[in-house]
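Bug #77: duplicate submission created two jobs. Keeping one. Sequence:
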Amino acid sequence: MSLTIKDLEQLQSHNPDWRMQLVKGNIIIMGPSDYESDEIVSRLNLFEYIGHASQTRAC
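Kept job's structure:
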């Protein structure tokens, strides 16, 4: 049975703390992000911001 985005949205509404993906008709469920994952995302966002800011700086 192939699942749809509607199925994914319904499952997410019942489990808002879980991260989910729909891959080739299958819903992949992962646990909530941990501290380490959040820190990595924050660092990547900071590096992206710094890179963007340095490109827009007037010389």
